[in-house]
Task: structure prediction
Amino acid sequence: MRDARCQERRYAVGVGGIRRVVFLPPEDVWGIVQKRPADRWGVLVFKGDDERDLLHVPLAGWLPEATSIGALDLRPHNCLSRTGLRGLVERLGIPLEEGPMFLSASGVPDDGREGRPYRALYAELPGWHTWARGVGLFGWFIALVIGFATELSWALPVAAGSLFLLPAADAVVRIRAWWRTRRHRRHVEKTEITPSPATGCGGTRRFLRTASVGVLAHDLVLINALGEERWLGRAGAHGVARLVRLIDAATGEPLGVEVRDREGEARALLPWRFWFAGPQGSDGWAALVGALGVPVSDQKYQKSRAAQPWWQGHQLAGDARKMSPMEGKAARKQIGWYRSVVGANEPVVLPFFSAVLLFGLFSDVVPVFLAGLLSALTVVFSLGPAVASALVSRISYDRTVEAAQG
Result:
């Protein structure tokens, strides 16, 4: 099994390896959503010969639409099929049972024995990033105290350099992610469908440049307005098997397109107005249907008169919202590096900490000047990307096409 951190682990099946699989459904769904979001639909536990837990697989971490569907809108047993884990267990021929969820002191499922089993869980950031930030903060504090307490001038550039590790680690993560994405997209053959919004519906440059639907040989890749990718398999019971156009029961106009699996479950929702109602919309729709090669049908949808927009109340309302143009402020709040990953206060905290040593820029002492220079770089690296992103967003990305042309 290979998880999102590209860590590969191999387990034998049978004697000396996995003997049975236990599904632990959550007893208190709402409490789990608040305390342990990864376990909100339960955990699949792979057990060995001695009944020791070998592997924990939180279902939420393997559900493509986990961020677009509410915990109360999907039953845990249904989630087993959507993730493809039920099919995996059946293919391996391992008995699947159900048991109560026992929690450890840290709030994660526990088998009651010493040690922790491996958890196949998505990680937002690599482990070295966390260590670099921890070492940076600790080193900055210790070196700063030593420098001012002992008047040891070389401790000051050590403190400034330690604090510089924080924005530098962030920059390395961004560059690596950009390079991997660029290299992957360059070598992958796919049919790509881009949005074609109706005239005057508020399509933004960000939405037109970012959102897309890609049909690969074995997967359907949906990229929303925030650049988040969601991969849906095309094979197996959980794979894409049908496209359903939702038709307004009152007016007969298309509202959206549901991507359904072989069990008839909706896995994605594309608002028609923003994807296929524009000048190139018919070509995009024909390309999607032709590339997927699955049956297409129409289904009447009775929308609520009070629902604005129409998908309010739909199980995949969160998906439709992100697969549509978003208001600039809401988009910036979700994609901002400091808000979405490491905390919204960092652009304020890091320059404040760095200001302690900025006076070194005016010093003739080499170590003190070096400390001031590193502090200035920390301010630039922490504030620069945030300011540039906000300006580009307001000036270009989050303006509608009509406003930009006018």
User: Anything to note?
Assistant: Confidence is low (pLDDT under 50) at residues 1-6. The radius of gyration is 25 Å. The longest helix spans residues 155-187.
